[in-house]
Amino acid sequence: MLTDKQLQRYADVLLWGLKTSRNERLKKNDIILIRYDLAAIKLVEILHQKIIRMGLHPIHRLLQTPNMEKDFYSLASLRQLTFIPPGEEELYNNLNGTIAILGPQSLTHLSKIDSSKIVQSLKAKKSLRNILDKREENSNFSWTLGMYPTKELATHAGMTEKEYANQIVNACFLNRTDPIAQWESIFNNSQSIKKWLNQMKVKKYHIESTNTDLEITPGEQRKWIGVSGHNIPSFELFISPDWRGTNGKYFADQPSYRSGNYVQGIRLEFKNGQVIRSSAEKGEKFLKKQLTTDDGANKLGEFSLTDKSFSKINRFMANTLFDENYGGKYGNCHIALGASYSDTYNGKQSDLTSEMKKELGLNDSALHWDIVNTEKKCVTAHLMSGRKKVIYENGIFTC
Question: Which superfamily does 4-175 belong to?
Answer without folding.
Answer: Thermophilic metalloprotease (M29) (3.40.1830.10)
